[in-house]
Design brief:
By secondary structure, this protein is an alpha+beta fold. It folds into 2 domains: 110 residues, Cyclophilin (Beta Barrel); 28 residues. It has 3 helices and 11 strands. The strands form 3 sheets. Strands 1, 3, 4, 5, 6, 7 and 8 form a 7-stranded antiparallel beta sheet that branches. Strands 2-9 form a two-stranded antiparallel ribbon. It has a two-stranded antiparallel sheet with strand order 10-11. Strand 10 and strand 11 form a beta hairpin. The protein is elongated and about 70 Å long. 22% of the residues are buried.
């Protein structure tokens, strides 16, 4: 079982209206996608630029897509969607977990009202944590933003030290 946090967008809300559903998965590099039909367009701006861990919906193909690594359109290690998509959330599954999905696998998509427990290897074999973010991986964009913020903070501290009297 894999979980995802959906964002507060019209596209995500329109998808949820079509759940639960079951469909056959397809793969395109490190993207798994499955058809979810008759999801109403949201008017949100679609893009082909996505991050590892993004969950998105393609209104062109009516597919739910999960990105976990490079796709055939990638020029670097970052995924690129085959068709424009609207990002609707983030999966909490690791890329290694998602790579176990094969084309032809039947996948059920449901809505959870509560946050499911997730396994946490740090707690020991079979232990489970109710912290849904305990195993969440940061996207490359989040990592880049964090590094930039930390560099800015360090530069500001250096400026403050050099501006002190006697320095």
């Amino acid at each position: 079982m894999f979980t995802a946090d959906l964002n507060n967008t019209i596209a995500a809300a329109n998808l949820v209206k079509k759940l639960p559903c079951e469909a056959t998965a397809s793969r395109w590099g490190d993207e798994v996608f499955l058809p979810v039909r008759d999801v109403q367009p949201s008017g949100e701006f679609p893009t082909r630029q996505v991050d590892i861990g993004d969950v998105a919906f393609s209104f062109n193909t009516q597919n739910l897509c999960v990105f976990f690594g490079p796709t055939p359109a990638s020029m670097v290690g970052k995924p690129v969607a085959e068709t424009p998509v609207v990002v609707i959330g983030t999966t909490m599954a690791s890329p290694d977990e998602l790579r176990r999905l094969n084309a032809g696998d039947r996948i059920s998509v449901t809505v959870c009202d509560t946050v499911p427990a997730v396994s946490n290897p740090a707690l020991g074999s079979g232990a489970r944590s109710t912290d849904p973010y305990g195993e969440r991986k940061l996207s490359q964009t989040e990592i880049d933003d964090l590094v930039k913020r930390l560099v800015r903070e360090m530069e500001e501290k250096k400026r403050q030290i050099h501006q002190q009297p006697g320095m």
